[in-house]
Write a structure and sequence with these properties.
Length: 119
């Protein structure tokens, strides 16, 4: 797999989490609160500007879903290893409303996540 390119988003930002499977995986299924190994790219919905990418660091990252933003906790379970999923996450399910102290507070985020492994 290659690093995904996230096309500019059209229209107003959604108010709820939007989950779109770009590639359906064939492997084990990610479980709520489980450990996942992923490659991902994250961009700002409005500007299309990338703010984070495991691809640019050249390695996947592994973490427990329970420790992640709500949009990932809700959006990754059910994915299968080998799959690629796009999540569009409103601020309430990401880093909270504007002024919340995080650089991404108040922003709608778009992630493309490749599920490499799960435990």
């Amino acid at each position: 797999m290659e690093k995904p390119v996230i096309e500019p988003q059209q229209g107003p930002a959604p108010e709820d989490l939007v989950i779109v499977d770009l590639i359906e995986g064939e492997g084990a299924e990610a479980q709520p609160g489980g450990m996942v190994e992923v490659h991902y790219v994250g961009v700002d919905f409005e500007t299309g500007e990338q703010f984070d990418s495991s691809w640019d660091r050249g390695q996947t990252i592994e973490f427990p879903l329970a420790g992640l933003i709500a949009g990932w906790q809700e959006g990754i379970p059910g994915m299968k290893v080998g799959g690629r999923r796009q999540l569009t996450i409103p601020p309430e399910a990401a880093y909270g409303p504007a002024g919340g102290g995080h650089p991404l507070s108040g922003r709608t985020l778009v992630f493309v996540i490749d599920l490499v492994g799960t435990k």
